[in-house]
Write the structure tokens for this entry.
Amino acid sequence: MSETESAPNPQPAQEDEVVSTFRSLKDLINFASSKSLMKGIAEMGESGMAEALPFPFLALVGQTEMKLALVLGLVNPNVGGILLVGPRGTGKTTAVRSLLELLPNVERSTCYYGCMPEDVELGGIDAICPECAQKYAAGQSLTAPDRVRLVELPLNARIEDVVGGLDERAATHERMRLRRGILAQADRNLLYIDEINLLSDEIMDAILDAAAQGIYTVRRGPVSATYRARFVLIGSMNPEEGKLRPQILDRFGLRLIVRGLSNAAERLEVYRRVQAYLNNQRAMIANYAEESQQAAAEIQEARKRLRSVSIPDELATRAIHLIQSMGIDSLRAEITWFEAARAYAAADGRTEVSQSDLSVVAPMCLRLRRSSFMTEYFKDQSGEEEEMQGLLKQLQ
């Protein structure tokens, strides 16, 4: 974009006036994603610094469904994870890493062992360590607010890196202690796995088991430890490089088919924004800072509002009938669908799910859930069942 084409940098008062007109988080994201750069690329200049700052989430062009799914995952971790499927170069990894500026705050344990107040509620005072028991008895908080983090799992990770293993430094002093693995570090955070279809079965099984239970136990000889692993799992993959096992695919609540942009003007805008980002990362991020701050604040509010969002029984029943008519057997379909709709309503400032909410999130919740193998299997099995019932009637 040339300097004559770029929009003038508005005055702060004007920006406040525009931003205050946004009715919902969705409107804010759509505005920021479609606006032109406030500064020309030449005016931004070069930063002259080697930095690793993420591309602004609100500067992503197009890919509306992918951006919506990622925001819903931040609002409601119960959507069950997000899978991005598409060819290389379509912005999957960039989109996930750009979430850093939008991540909300959570209450996190200040204890090395991860003691939480709910541990006392479930297992009594003996369920937490002695130090935290003293704090709890004195009325002191066991947690502190901390920002959600993005934890990435490298493809070359070993099983010890993922679940944890013996602390080698402690072993040199003839002590036996376990160190936390990536899964424990991912507790109450986002766990991102790029090229998830290339992970070894051993590591993938450990991740899925921890994600399903929310906790996992590590045993190394006489030493064992149990860690929490409550995380939002985000995976991306290129289907050209291999498929996911069905049991892995079933663990992901939201499934996104990420295609390349078909609009030439949008592709050109992507190039302009990438060039501006490469020239000066800080200037590019500052260009979207105000909208990013407001989006992060609205995500935090939506997380609080989510507790009071409900879905009418009549609407939920009709949605379940639709799932059954599609031949989807997995109960995770309606769980994900309803949780995503609740998150969408919460982000829109409402406390009741509507038909429109279900319609918007339905494609990402219901696609890739039918199994042609199981359909044929049940069809073949039905013949045997009919024969068996006929024979049983002859015994009457």
Notes: Confidence is low (pLDDT under 50) at residues 1-21, 38-43, 47-51. The longest strand covers residues 215-220.
